[in-house]
Structures are given as C-alpha cells and as structure tokens.
Specification:
- This protein is an alpha/beta fold.
- The chain folds into two domains: 207 residues, Rossmann fold; 234 residues, Rossmann fold (3-Layer(aba) Sandwich).
- Helices cover 44% and strands 13% of the residues.
- It is built from 17 helices and 14 strands.
- The strands form three sheets. The protein has a six-stranded parallel β-sheet, sandwiched between helices. It has a six-stranded parallel β-sheet with strand order 11-10-9-12-13-14, covered by helices on one side. A two-stranded parallel ribbon has the order 7-8.
- Helix 9 packs across helix 11 and helix 9 runs parallel beside helix 12.
- The chain is globular.
- The N and C termini lie far apart (59 Å).
- The structure holds nicotinamide-adenine-dinucleotide.
- The site of nicotinamide-adenine-dinucleotide has 25 residues, from helix 5.
C-alpha cells in the first residue's frame, strides 16, 4: 500500500501542528485534517494570526502548505474514504461519569472515530492512534472496526505524540524519538514500515523506535508520569526549603547538574497544568488498580496529590498573609495559560488559585499575553458549574473578575500580585518598586530573590 493521502481526525493541539509538519515535510502526500467542530475548521481556514492553536512557527508553516497539500475540512466521510492512512488525534479526557469516573480515560471520542472509520472505509486502511490511550486500547478499536466492517482490512498502529505545547513545532522537527507500535504479524510489520517511511522524510532513522502496540501505548503514559513526577518531586522540596532556609532554585541547580538526573523539569512552581499530565497519571493509576497493583497505583497517585497540595499551599499562603480576610482585596493574577507560549488554559493552576481567592471575597484582575477575559471567565464558569454551584452565585463571583492589561500592572494599586505563569514579559517588570506597596507572591521564581517578595521555595 502506497500512502498518498492521509486523514487526521481531530484538529486540536496535536492534530493541527503534527499534520502541518507532515504536510510540510512530505510534499508528495495530501493531508486532510477533519474535525466535528465546524468553528474550529473555519478558524484553521481563516486568518493565520487567528488559528485555533498558537505555537511559535505554526502559522508560517500553515501559510506555506494550506490549500496545497494540507487541507482542513468538515467532510469526514470523504476524507476517510480517500485516505490510505488515518490518524486519530481526538481528545481523551478523564471520565466524569460512570465506571472509573474521575480516573479512567473517556474513550467515547476515540470509539466514535472508530465507528466513522468503519462506516466510511471502502478500501484497506492503516489506522494510527495519535491520541494518548490506555494500554490495550488498540484491541478495542480493532474490535469496533472488525465487527462493523468485514470487507476492509484494518491495521492498527500506536504512534503517541510527545510534543510539548509552546515548543510543538521544534519538538516535531527534532523529535527525541518517534515511537511506532504495531502488531508483530507480517501485515502489521508492513504497516509499521509505511509510517516509518513518512517520518524518515525528516527524522533520522535511529530516532524512530518500533515496538509492539502495548509497549508504545504504555510508553506515552509512562513518559508523562515520569515528567510530572519530577515536577511534584521538586515541589515537595520547595515546601521543605521554606521551612529550613534552603533555596529551591539552588537545590534544582545542584541536583540537575548531576548528569544522571539532568536539569529539565526541576523548576519549582505552583504545580503542573495542561490537559495531559493529570489525566494521564490518573489513567495510569486506574490501570494499575484494574490489574490489582494497589501499591503501584498509590505511588503514582501521590504525584497528582502533591500537585494539588502545591496549588493549595500557594493559595493558602496568600490568604494567611491577609489573616484570612480577602474581602474586597484587589489581587492581580499574572498568567492564565498553563505555561508560557501557549494559549491553552486547560487545568491551569491559575484557575485553582483564582477560585480559592474569589471564594474568599477577593476581586481578581488577570493578565495573560494570549488569553482574553472571555476565556478566563469561561474557564472559571465551567469549574464552578462542575462543583454544582448555583448560577446566581457563579454570576456574582464572576463579576469580581476583570482583565488587567500589561501596562497597568505598574500603575494600578493591588493588595497583592500572584505570579503564576512564567511568561517572559514578566521578567521586565520592576518588582522592586512594586513590592514597596504590594505583597507579591512569586509562584515561578521570576522576581530574582527580592527579600520583600514571597518566592516559592526560597
Ligand atoms: N495537547 C498536548 O500537548 C498533547 C500532547 C501529546 C498528546 N496529546 C494527546 O493527544 C490527544 C488530542 O489532544 P489535543 O490536545 O489535541 O485535544 P483537543 O481537544 O485540542 O483536540 C481534539 C479535537 O478532536 C475533535 N473530535 C473529538 N471527537 C471527534 C470525532 N469523533 N470526530 C471528529 N472530531 C472529533 C474535537 O472537536 C477537538 O477539536 C489527546 O489524547 C491528548 O492526550 C496531547
């Protein structure tokens, strides 16, 4: 089977950038990205400065290949029909209801993709799991495809995505590794080689690692769990530093200088956010429990529990500084994205801090270079709704949230400023002058050890 047409289902943070890079590096392949969300497809076809995903370098690539060999479409049926290879890059959030609620992955989006693929396929297909999935999901997908469509041969590959938001394009250009899992049958091995061929257009062959499907699926969960574990590990030490006079920035440097440990993912913070770490670890915990590995489950669960503790610890620090009275106190929150260089705010620690302060009666002004007030309020509204808070109460809490422009950070008077996302813009702020009139809580250590400022773990 020669791959001339690729279809990717899911035009989100993963589907958009990965397919843009495949189209750029493989001009001989037509790539079509489809999505059930028509607004999203419209936005991918719209102005380059308003694409649904912001990643440095992405708009330039889309500008180069869009409507040449990269298309964004809402015609799922014909895109599936025409493609020899179909990527599934749909969301796999934590389940909110039913068995495993709060822990297991919600696979309904993946299942509905598989239903569509079975329904519209008239020729053999290679189906690639790009979404992060629990180990042995390929079995379930195979079951759906085979039971719904007996005329077509489907080969399932696992090809998890390791890009990090904010550096996605660079990560895709220079991946540490590309992982491809496939069945150890002759057709499985051939399908793996087809995907290897695509990646070798720009990735050196020795960075492409082929494994069995289950190892590939589990490697993605394992990688995210280990990365998040490092963040929680340094965050536990930040709490100990505050009690002992040690300095967590120095600890990170000292520990990270050991080549066996390395310096990455060792910065103390208000905790990790984003759509992946928490959901993937909870999924891992759920899987371990499913297989009766209670001790292993508990080990990984602690990573998430420490993350919650860190967010709580930071918020409580602010509340305690005002002796529990935040009523009508004006507090600025700097940073809403879960990390710099993205406009993604899923699971952002800022939201948890804002909620806690709002519940104590504070008036919040939020600055973010990429995220507007509408998104901030929508994030907060969804959170409050998920906690079954009454609409009237939510409306009254949200009245206390406004947007703070960067210029006004210096000119407005706040009782307190909480720095949560380490956007580079914040490095240019004159913290010394601000700290004379305002209590500053630095959650990402950007203020450089100013004695008047609370810096996490310092
Ligand atoms: N965001 C990341 O940094 C990242 C990194 C690596 C892996 N992942 C994984 O990749 C997967 C996708 O993540 P994302 O952040 O791109 O999600 P996303 O929410 O940004 O995008 C998913 C898209 O799929 C669409 N969709 C869902 N079901 C569909 C269906 N049946 N038919 C057509 N479209 C459908 C949604 O409308 C949405 O636009 C997840 O499993 C995630 O864990 C994400």
């Amino acid at each position: 089977m020669k791959i001339k047409n690729i279809c990717c289902i899911g035009a989100g943070y993963v589907g958009g950038p990965t397919m843009a890079v495949i189209a750029l590096k493989c001009p001989h392949i037509n790539v079509t990205v489809v999505d059930a969300n028509l607004e999203k497809i419209k936005a991918w076809n719209g102005p380059l400065n308003k694409l649904p995903v912001y990643e440095p370098g992405l708009a330039e690539i889309v500008g180069e290949v869009r409507n040449k060999n990269l298309n964004f479409s809402d015609n799922i049926k014909s895109s599936i029909e025409n493609a020899e290879m179909i990527f599934m890059a749909v969301n796999t959030p934590t389940k909110t209801t039913g068995e495993g609620a709060g822990m297991a992955s919600d696979l309904s989006y993946i299942e509905s993709c598989a239903e569509d693929i079975a329904k519209y396929s008239k020729s053999d297909k290679i189906v690639v799991e790009k979404s992060t999935l629990p180990v042995r999901t390929a079995e379930k997908i195979k079951e759906i495809l085979k039971s719904r469509n007996k005329d077509v041969h489907f080969e399932i590959l696992s090809n998890p995505e390791f890009l990090a938001e904010g550096t996605a394009i660079n990560d895709l250009f220079k991946s540490d590794r590309v992982l491809i899992g496939g069945d150890q049958t002759s057709t499985g091995k051939k399908a793996v080689q087809e995907l290897v061929k695509i990646y070798t257009n720009w990735i050196p062959r020795d960075k492409i690692y082929t494994t069995n499907v289950w190892s590939s699926e589990l490697s993605k969960l394992a990688s995210n769990a280990m990365l998040a574990q490092r963040i929680s590990s340094i965050n536990t030490l930040s709490a100990l530093c505050e009690k002992t006079g040690a300095n967590v920035v120095e600890i990170s440097k000292a520990v990270g200088m050991d080549h066996r440990i390395g310096p990455n993912f060792l910065n103390a913070s208000v905790g990790f956010g984003g759509s992946c770490f928490q959901k993937d670890i909870l999924n891992l915990v759920y899987l371990c429990r499913h297989y009766g590995l209670e001790e292993v489950a508990e080990f990984w669960h602690q990573v998430v529990k420490i993350n919650d503790y860190q967010k709580e610890r930071f918020s409580q620090k602010i509340i305690d500084t005002f002796k529990g009275n935040l009523i009508n106190k004006k507090i600025a929150i700097l940073g809403w994205a879960f990390k710099p260089n993205t406009k993604d705010s899923r699971e952002t620690p800022s939201k948890y801090v804002a909620v806690k302060l709002l519940e104590e009666g504070a008036i919040i002004e939020v600055n973010d270079p990429m995220i507007n007030l509408e998104q901030i309020k929508s994030d907060l509204r969804s959170y409050f709704q998920s906690k079954s808070i009454e609409r009237v109460k939510i409306d009254s809490l949200l009245k206390n949230v406004t947007f703070l422009s960067f210029e006004k950070i210096h000119t407005r008077i706040f009782s307190s400023i909480a720095i949560i996302t380490a956007w580079p813009d914040y490095e240019s702020i004159d913290w010394k002058s601000l700290s004379l009139k305002t209590k500053i809580f630095d959650g990402c250590n950007v203020t450089n050890e100013n004695k008047n400022i609370y810096s996490i773990g310092v």
